[in-house]
Amino acid sequence: MIGWNRTPGRADELVAAGAQLATSPADLAARSDIVISCVSDTPDVEAVLFGPQGVIEHLQGKTALVFTTSNTPRDEELARFGDPLENLWKTCIFGFCGVQRFCRRNFEPIILSTHPQRTQWLAEVRRLVAEWFPRSDQP
Q: 44: Cβ–Cβ under 8 A, 6 or more apart, which residues?
């Protein structure tokens, strides 16, 4: 595993557990088969993807999974706004990068969720990752 964090020192636990530390998102992407990003808002996403040391130039694959949460219950968000994040990720970011296969799964607000719900969400994330990125060493 290779890790990177915008804040120096926040990846220390990963390194202590045996991970390698990348010098930038670009370095991480150049050395990885799969890139997982977890950032808080649009400017951060733009910096990690498109910044001077962003991952875009180094992405080898054309498949993407995006897991997001919202601050608004899903039904209310869809009624008020539609799904603007789907368009942002699918068309503006991954369409621009040439990513052909795309899946986005939005989870309900974490602050309102229960431990069993979060456990179920993590199980769904594992299932989707296994489905979209099957391991070559598994039958």
A: 6
CB 66 within 8 A of CB 104: yes
Q: For the chain, give the number of residues.
A: 139
Specify whether the CB–CB gap between 130 and 122 falls below 8 A. no
Whole-prediction pTM: 0.58
β 2-3/20-21 pair status:
parallel
Q: Are 48 and 39 in contact (CB under 8 A)?
A: yes
Q: Are 130 and 92 in contact (CB under 8 A)?
A: no
38-71: pLDDT as tens digits? 777 778 888 888 888 988 878 767 788 888 887 7
What one-letter code names the amino acid at 9? G
